[in-house]
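Protein in question kept in full:
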Amino acid sequence: MAKTAVARRLRDGYQHEIEIREHRLIADEVEEDGGTDQGPTPTELLAGALASCTAMTVEMYAERKGWELGEVEVTAHFTRATADTPPLFRVETRISAELSDEQRERIVVIAHKCPVHRALLANDVAIDDSLGLIEA
């Protein structure tokens, strides 16, 4: 089933309210890029989606295996794209529990399989853009 996210422009700069189901959040750009810095940038939101998806995927897998991970913290570092280089995301997963080398290797493999990670890596992601009018 398709999921829907709607973004609507708010006030100054590039502020947009994002509506996903009954949830609302603000996206904006930093002041140096013409925004008002009232929320994370879209790229920061994407990094946050990658970090949270990775954490949830690892936690679900460990739960199914009966492995105790303790605290799980995932940091998604990102570098914006330039004319010469694509964007780069570096994902660092940290846990507080001691695991065997085999378990640790498996966690890294599973982290790589989170849906956001897979979507970012997929060469065949389809994005169908269209333009319509907002009816008053």
Notes: Residues 17 and 26 are 5 Å apart (CA to CA). The chain has a mean pLDDT of 87. Helices lie at 42-65, 101-111, 115-121. The longest strand covers residues 72-79.
